[in-house]
Amino acid sequence: MNYKLEIFFDNLKTFFRNLKDKIVYGFKYADKKKILIRTGIAALIILLVILLIRCGSGSGGISKKEYKNTMDLAQVYADKDEYDRALALLEKLLIANPKDKKVQKLFDEILNKKKAYDNGAASASASANGNTILNPNISVDFDASDISNAMQSALDRQAAENQKVLERALAEQSRQAAENQRASQQAMEENQRALEKSQKAMAELMEKQAAQEEAKKQAEAERLEAEKAAAEQKKIEEEKRKKAEAELAKKNAKLKAEIDAVNEKIRLGKTALATGNKEEAMDYFNQAKALLPVSDGEPEFSASKESEMAQALFEASEKDGVSAADKNYYMNQAVTMANNALAANPKDAAAHNILGADALDKKDYNKALDEFKKAVLYNPNNYLYYYNLGKTQYILKKYSESVQSFTTSCRLNGQFSPSRYNLGLAQLKLKNDSQALDAFRKAIDINPRYEKAYLEQARLLSKRGDNNGSVNSYKKVLEINNVNTTALMELGSVYYADKKLSNAEESYLRALSLMQSSANYTLTSFNLSTVLFEEGKYSEAVSYAKKAYEGKDFIKDDKAKANIIYNYALMLEKTGNKDAAITTYAEVLKYDAGHNKTKINLGVMYMALTPPDAESALTLFKSVYNADPTNFEANNNLGSAYLVLEDYKHSIQYFQVALKLDPKNNDVRYNLAKAYTKDGDYATAKTVYTDLLKADNSNWDAYLELAKVCLQCNDNEGAEKYLVYLQEKNPSYKKSEVQNLLDEISK
């Protein structure tokens, strides 16, 4: 229709309405000739239409209302950045009246806005073609004044549709967030279990290293106590020897003089040894040897004197502060004289004991075993010989025989606590915990300040689950020696096992305060970081995990070292330092390429990147799977990775295996259903979702997704059932999305 004609019809419409009202009003009360009047009105209207068409066909007029509506609509379009539509409307007005300043001004304003909006792009050309198709059935009563209202209605509808789209997007985002939360929670639980396992391994390593350290202390303490016992035993042996010599000297004065001369030289030699004058000592000992053999009592007398001098030299080699060179000198001389004694008398028990001690020092354990056996054979009443035999058997892992030797030593001398203590150690190796505990307690009864016996008692009680008894024993150790770092470390572990975190923290901190950088410092820092993290002291936990990490080179075992690095990486991940965690996790694999938990965690972190690095994650998950196809985490995460990569067939395959490994895991079941849905297998997805809801009837995500799957299967009735149930049981759950789906079903 010609634009002028459009304006004409608008004017014509208004005119007819007014005219009709006047005519009808004028004849409103006429009672006669109504039909004639109405006929006349109709004829008059037709006549007027014909005249107006003829007169108005060349008019350029437009109603004020139409003009205003057009201007307003153009402004609405401009405000919504729909500049082309606004300019097109204004062009029509300018074609009708090119001199309209108001239209020109608005046109220029909108054109400038468009240019600014397009950042300098050329202004769009607007079509001003006024030709259109006129509907021949158009009603004379058509009212174009509502065009702005219609436009607003259209905009409202679009806004409503946009709102629906937004709600669906938000609902999907919410569902994805919930799924991520579930996955994150599951990962946290798995990590916690891994952390506890790692800590257990570290505790075992710490106990092993502490035991090694204690063994050194034990050896020194036992050496001192053995020295004391040896002195007592020596006194007994000397009295026995003197008695035998006195009996021998009674035979005649000449023999007595010979014996006295030998003994005097030996006495002078011992005195020289006591002052550290080894050359003078050996000179006297050699003079004594030159006086042998005596005229009677041979060869036993000469053997006993050689054995006596050998014992004196052996004791000199064992003294504190003696140099390595002197120790070696004394021991070599002692061995020579012991061999001389045995040449004279193969049954000299003391000489066999010295040779056994020398072999033990040189780690020739089989020779030591043979010599100590001969010592107890030729002197079955010497508890120290049995004690030495028991220690050698223990070293050779002959624990049952060791128990017998220590038991005999205890029988021969019930007050020698080292035999009781070592009996307890041997019983431990045979897993006779009750007998071991009894031996340690008897050692404590003999020596109430037996530090090592309390320590072993504490360990046994902890093993039994008697944490209170264990704590008391550790405290006893610390009463005796308040700088015993081993006791402090292990006490911290007992407190941790008993969930007394603040006590554990205190014990670990006390231990660290007494340590230099070392393997134990590293392990204690590791354990302290775990305690602090559980206490919620995250920054401190990371700090001590870092200290353990920095001291990892003190740990010689690569797998133990990997656990320390893993712990640090885990702490970094849990405290949000993702980049550092990824780097540190990667370092774990340098020391333990088979550290599967690291591979899983690192893969999960790759999946959480934006965008996800699913390929790298897939490589790690496959590595774990290849090592152990029954690994639940490997299968579950492979399913997730393939789901992201849109390889739904493989995703389904691995989720199926994961579900077989953990049939009660509804998160896996949900993801499996999701994979079936993505693969277009709606019927199977429907079955899996249904099984899931049988196991977990409050899984609202599953109800919603099942409803969507039902819609894909053209099962509107089923979809409606699940959606209505969802509305009834959890009205606030994704309210808009649920209602939108119900509205779609009802159409």
Architecture blueprint of SSEs:
Elements: H1 3-26, H2 34-56, H3 64-79, H4 83-96, H5 101-117, H6 147-249, H7 253-274, H8 278-290, H9 300-318, H10 324-344, H11 349-361, H12 365-378, H13 383-395, H14 399-412, H15 417-429, H16 433-446, H17 451-464, H18 467-480, H19 485-497, H20 501-513, H21 519-534, H22 538-550, H23 558-574, H24 578-591, H25 596-607, H26 614-627, H27 632-644, H28 648-661, H29 666-678, H30 682-695, H31 700-712, H32 716-729, H33 735-746
Oligomerization state: single chain
Helix content: over 70%
Distance between the termini: 38 Å
Strand content: under 5%
Sequence stretches where pLDDT stays below 50 over 5 or more residues: 1-8, 22-37, 49-60, 120-156
Sheet of most strands: none
User: What's the helix count?
Assistant: 33
Count of distinct strands = 0
- Based on CA atoms alone, the radius of gyration comes out at 51 Å
Q: How would you sum up the global shape?
A: elongated
Alpha-beta content class = mainly alpha
What's the mean pLDDT score?
83
